[in-house]
Amino acid sequence: MIRLDYSNGDFEKALDAALKQFAPNRRRLSKLGRYYEGRHDILMRTKPQGMPNNRLPHGFPKYIAELSAGYMYSSGPIYSIKGDDEGLNNLLALEEESADAALNMRIALYQSVYGQGLSLCWLDDSLHISSLDPRNAFIAYDDTAARKPLFGVILSSREMRVYTDTHVYIYEGVNNKKPKTKAPHGFKRLPMVAYDNGPNLQGDFEHVLPLVDAYDTLASDRLNDRGQFADAMLVLTGIMGIDESDDNMSAAAKLRQQRTLTLPDSDSKAEWLIKNANEKDIDVLRKAISDDIHKFSMTPDLEDTRLLGMSSGIAIQYKLFCLRQRTAIKERFFIKGLKDRARLLCDVLESRGLKAPDVDRIKISFKNREGALFKE
Question: Can you count the helices (H) and strands (E) in the chain?
Answer without folding.
Answer: 11, 14
